[in-house]
Write a structure and sequence with these properties.
CATH architecture of the largest domain: 3-Layer(aba) Sandwich
CATH class of the largest domain: Alpha Beta
Radius of gyration: 24 Å
Distance between the termini: 61 Å
CATH topology of the largest domain: Rossmann fold
Shape: globular
Number of domains: 4
Helix content: 25-40%
Bound molecules: iron/sulfur cluster
């Protein structure tokens, strides 16, 4: 999102030619990641690359959205304000997600989509850009410093899947580029978790005394730090997520008479932010008209609305209260209004850290859960910084609140959401209306699960009822938009509901099968 330019090292280190990326002050950049409901490491690199690009000041605003975390791919369009919106998938291949899931969720017609007076530019995923070669070489050199390449087998590891053959193409292309580029490795090969050649066969696949394994993944998630080490034989059983590990793995590991070097996922390399910009630049070359727009500096409508709401005395949103202080603004937990022993933070990005874990240290996959930890105050210089911090506390909430005020919010009926699911979730709509309302009542409970107020119907012309009805009005606690609170709205059910619906639909199916089978 829009914010003051700050000096962070990764930004300062950027080659200056990126600072001359042409005429994007009219445009928003959305980086789309997968995210996770259980692993806090999954979305971290995507956020870090967004931070790096944001501080360059090249775009009007830089935002992230996720398949499994907030904000969702529907909510993010309420949040970004550019007349041109570049969308870069932070995915490794052109596979199932980039060709089917993302265009469906983002409502894209192709590379260029015109909708609601805006232009959406769908760039290629980062993993297929030729400049990924440089990142791979850098990772290999970092993990095996001083090890002669001509005595080293470089193994690039991917997931492999039967869903889409393109998922392996990006890795095979990198293997070809490194082999033909004369980089001096004894051998370069690809291997996969779920299809041949299997990474578990690395001893037979490689011949050099040193073996460097680089996971071609976006984040250090379950695959790169839990599954692959087991497949390599480094671990007997899946370990903890990276964020829970105190000591990074030691390299090399002596195995089968070889020196095995294992690196972090390629997507955590800071230079991946450059590849994101490379994809924008390549898109502009292929579609020179699409990204055009007026380069007039515009004040954020959400920032103006926030200023107006604060003047009206609407100082609370969820569990956060905003107050004017000398030289700027202060945010703190609603229950810490009278506390004097708070830890002071000063960067909008600190809000993301504060919102990441609850007081017990557990990951908060739903940012609107009523368990934001206490004990902090966030002091910020201006409303641009406040807006950015609120994006991290409650993703897309300001945009949805403004859209609701303007009458432009387009809630998605639950049946429409469940009906458009594919892959393993394609049967999620096989639940009854009563079951749907029971799931919402259970999974969205304001006191224990989520502070948002639901504004979507069950189906067109059919409101939610039964246990779900409590989520419809100001009964939804802090999510109510009366009085001094800004609303936390839910315009489309989150993936927790889709997962619960799939589980219920499966139980329905199995119950029917049992009933239909002869005794
Ligand atoms: S569907 Fe329920 S739990 Fe999910 S974001 Fe909306 S209100 Fe919260």
């Amino acid at each position: 999102m829009t914010g003051p330019r700050r000096s962070v090292s990764s930004c300062a280190d950027f080659p200056t030619y990126y600072l001359r990326l042409n005429s994007h002050s009219h445009a928003s950049l959305i980086i789309v990641g997968h995210g996770s409901t259980v692993n806090p490491d999954s979305s971290a690199p995507t956020h870090q690359h967004a931070d790096t690009i944001r501080c360059l000041g090249v775009f009007r605003e830089v935002a992230c959205c996720f398949w499994k975390e907030e904000p969702t791919m529907r909510e993010i369009f309420e949040s970004v304000e550019g007349e041109v919106v570049y969308i870069v998938p932070n995915f490794i291949s052109e596979g199932y997600f980039c060709q089917q899931v993302l265009p469906r969720e983002l409502r894209l017609d192709g590379p260029v989509t015109h909708r609601d007076g805006r232009t959406f530019c769908y760039c290629d995923p980062v993993g297929i850009h030729p400049n990924m070669t440089r990142l791979l070489l850098q990772r290999a050199d970092e993990v095996a410093q001083g090890v002669p390449r001509d005595q080293t087998s470089l193994v690039i590891v991917g997931h492999g899947t039967s869903l889409n053959e393109n998922s392996t193409k990006a890795i095979q292309e990198q293997v070809r580029l490194i082999r033909e580029g004369g980089y001096g490795f004894a051998e370069v090969l690809d291997a996969y978790m779920e299809e041949a050649p299997l990474v578990s066969d690395w001893v037979q696949l490689t011949s050099a005394p040193n073996v460097v394994v680089v996971p071609f993944f976006i984040a250090d998630g379950l695959h790169s730090f839990q599954d692959i080490p087991v497949l390599l034989g480094m671990e007997k059983e899946p370990g903890k997520a990276l964020s829970e590990m105190e000591v990074f793995r030691q390299n090399p590991i002596e195995m089968h008479g070889r020196h095995l070097y294992y690196s972090g996922a390629i997507g955590t390399e800071p230079l991946l932010a450059e590849v994101i910009l490379d994809q924008v630049r390549d898109f502009d070359r292929r579609h020179p008209e699409a990204g055009q727009g007026s380069a007039v500096a515009q004040v954020s409508a959400q920032q103006q609305a926030l200023a107006r709401w604060l003047e009206q005395g609407r100082h609370a949103i969820g569990q956060v209260v905003i107050s004017a202080v000398d030289g700027g603004w202060e945010l703190r937990h609603l229950d810490d209004c009278d506390s004097e022993s708070l830890i002071t933070h000063t960067q909008p990005e600190d809000a993301r850290t504060l919102a990441r874990y609850d007081a017990a240290g557990a990951f908060r996959p739903i940012k609107t859960a009523p368990d934001l930890k206490r004990g902090w105050r966030l002091v910020l210089p201006d409303l641009a910084a406040v807006r950015l911090a609120l994006e991290f506390f409650y993703p897309a909430a300001l945009g949805m609140a403004l859209a609701q005020e303007r009458g432009t919010l387009k809630p998605v009926p639950l049946r429409a959401l469940l009906g458009r699911q594919t892959g393993m979730y394609r049967f999620a709509n096989g639940i009854t209306d009563d079951q749907a309302c029971a799931i919402l009542g259970r999974c969205c409970d304001t006191a224990t699960k989520c502070l948002r107020r639901i504004v979507y119907p069950l189906a067109e012309g059919q409101t939610l009822s039964g246990p779900a009805a409590a989520k419809l009005g100001d009964a939804a606690g802090h999510a109510g938009d009366g009085g001094s609170a800004l609303p936390l709205l839910c315009m489309e059910a989150c993936n927790h509901i889709v997962s619960a619906a799939r589980k219920q639909a499966r139980e329905n199916f199995e119950a029917k099968e049992r009933a239909d089978s002869p005794a």
